[in-house]
């Protein structure tokens, strides 16, 4: 299996791994936390968190001496700042077992702690053995192992999630993966893949026109492939396409494409209004939620079946207000 290696049934809310300190747990080296109120209070009710603190779970106490990465950024050591105690083996052994277990937990994403020597996903400081200025080429020991073991898993850190575009992209991918797990839980088949792909077409197009075309060709050739190969290739290409940024220009292309489904229904005033709203979004005068809301109005008014099934028009819970800021 690809998106859901364990084959467990995807039910309820998406499961997201998260650094425990971001939920307000006092597990940092100084006994503090790094509470992120959006993650806990806004996103939290719509997902199921799997909290992880590598330091505590590998046997270190709270409070504890601060640690940092030292040596080769490609394979750094984890050492305490003052005493120089090497904790690499202790952390690595725990991380390997924890990551192996997480492969069967049905995760749809992970939010790491920025800059952490255990949980930083990128740009973690790595200090030279002989002293001097650190590089920013490191990854936390736990984060690196999780990302290598589950390369298609949507991941971000708390710092990058302050960007509205990155936040929307991450959460969108989380819900796409949750729906993929739902497909797998019912049993993968070409027919179910066609339905899944059809409902995600405009969503993929907003990220990558080439990905949209490539996935379409893959599905069309699905009957000539064994199901395991088809499943793996589709999921990989899907998640790689969705990693690409959904720019304003790409979104305008999708909105215009969607507008084409109403060419026989809209009167001249309605057509002009929709064009003006899409144009205002294209000039970044209004957020994406404005043209999407108008499109959803016409979907309901004219009972347009294809667009009513498109996840692009409602990719995640409206309560998150993610498209109010992109």
From TrEMBL:
Pfam families associated with the record: 2-thiour_desulf, DUF1722
Residue span(s) of domain DUF1722? 201-317
Q: What is this protein called?
A: Uncharacterized conserved protein YbgA, DUF1722 family
Organism encoding this protein: Humidesulfovibrio mexicanus
């Amino acid at each position: 299996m690809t998106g859901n290696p364990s084959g467990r049934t995807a039910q309820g809310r998406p499961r997201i791994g998260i650094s425990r300190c971001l939920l307000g747990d006092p597990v940092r080296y100084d006994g503090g936390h790094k509470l992120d109120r959006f993650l806990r209070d806004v996103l939290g009710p719509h997902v199921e968190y799997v909290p992880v603190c590598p330091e505590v779970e590998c046997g270190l106490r709270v409070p504890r001496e601060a640690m940092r990465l030292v040596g080769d950024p490609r394979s750094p050591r984890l050492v305490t700042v003052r005493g120089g105690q090497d904790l690499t083996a202790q952390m690595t052994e725990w991380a390997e077992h924890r990551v192996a277990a997480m492969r069967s937990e049905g995760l749809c994403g992970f939010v790491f702690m920025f800059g952490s020597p255990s949980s930083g996903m990128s740009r973690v400081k790595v200090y030279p053995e002989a002293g001097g200025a650190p590089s920013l080429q490191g990854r936390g020991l736990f984060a690196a192992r999780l990302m290598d073991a589950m390369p298609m898993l949507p991941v971000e850190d708390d710092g990058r999630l302050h960007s509205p575009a990155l936040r929307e992209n991450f959460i969108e991918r989380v819900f796409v993966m949750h729906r993929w797990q739902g497909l797998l839980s019912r049993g993968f088949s070409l027919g179910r893949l066609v339905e899944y792909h059809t409902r995600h077409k405009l969503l993929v197009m907003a990220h990558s026109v080439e990905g949209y075309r490539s996935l379409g060709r893959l599905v069309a050739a699905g009957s000539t492939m064994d199901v395991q190969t088809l499943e793996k290739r589709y999921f990989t290409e899907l998640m790689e396409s969705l990693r690409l940024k959904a720019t304003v220009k790409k979104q305008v292309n999708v909105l215009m494409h969607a507008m084409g489904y109403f060419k026989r229904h809209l009167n001249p005033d309605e057509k002009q209004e929709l064009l003006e709203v899409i144009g205002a979004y294209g000039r970044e005068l209004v957020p994406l939620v404005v043209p999407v809301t108008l499109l959803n109005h016409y979907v309901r008014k004219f009972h347009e079946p294809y667009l009513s099934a498109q996840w692009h028009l409602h990719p995640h819970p409206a309560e998150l207000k993610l498209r109010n800021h992109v």
